[in-house]
Design a protein that fits this description.
single chain, mainly beta, seven-stranded antiparallel sheet, globular, Pirin-like protein, Pirin_C_dom, Pirin, RmlC_Cupin_sf, metal ion binding
Length: 322
Amino acid sequence: MPAVTADTVRLPRLAEPALGAVDRPVRTITTAPSGFEGEGFPVLRAFAGVRLTDLDPFIHMDEMGAVDYGPGEPKGTPWHPHRGFETVTYMIDGTFQHQDSHGGGGLITDGATQWMTAGAGILHIETPPEELVVRGGLFHGIQLWVNLPARDKFTPPRYQNLEAGQVELVASPDGGALLRVIAGEVGEHRGPGSTHTPISVVHATVSPGARVHVPWNPEFNALAYVLGGRGTVGPAGRPIEAGQLAVLGAGDLVTVAADARQDAATPGLEVLLLGGRPIREHVEAYGPFVMNTRAELIQAVEDFQAGKLGVIPANALMPHRG
């Protein structure tokens, strides 16, 4: 169950779809393969097998967990560099610590979101806090990579931290769906997140048997990734389930519906809706660097090796070892 929830009866409601609004059709549905990241925590590679032109302006997304760790099991990432893009880390349940080479740091916990603009370059670590490592517990989150256009590749690094209570909560007209608007606009409702590249990020919980039509900027692309449960997406009602990503075509709204019967572990359909204004520039990526040319990638590696992306601070956060 996501950490951020609410009684939809008391929330503002989405407007009914406008007359003539075009429901975005499903172009493809892919299933995310499993893998491991950092020191060995489990992830689903949500964008695997999808063309970058369909993802633009997004580059990469991992679903971290969901996993209920035992004592001593939680893991994170060691110190690592980034250049040329922004990371969006959304903690659905659980806690992550972070620190960077520019003096930033803190906790991302239970429904909070952290934007990190790597820009010209930064060193960074994300790791579960000592308390979570010692006792274990639920861990579930998303890390999304948002590309920067060539003109912003070398912008200074920065952070934006959004606590769980800052997201905009909206209900469907019949109250059958709860939408957490993290960034971008959904009809007249706007989320607090801000990135260099305009995007929308919405986490929807749809009750069994319910349906929601989500207004969507026609200039943006549209992706629907299922975090839990089963349902359908698009005007033709294409079946979709946990760990699957739908790439949608052009239109004014996105339709998702939850199956009437769900597994006991997932009371409803949990779906992450993503979209952004395509950058339409050539992408060259190598590990934690996302640039426009191979020469820029080589320069990023050389700058990292020369310490130009930053240095690990003297009071550096390090992974807790039991």
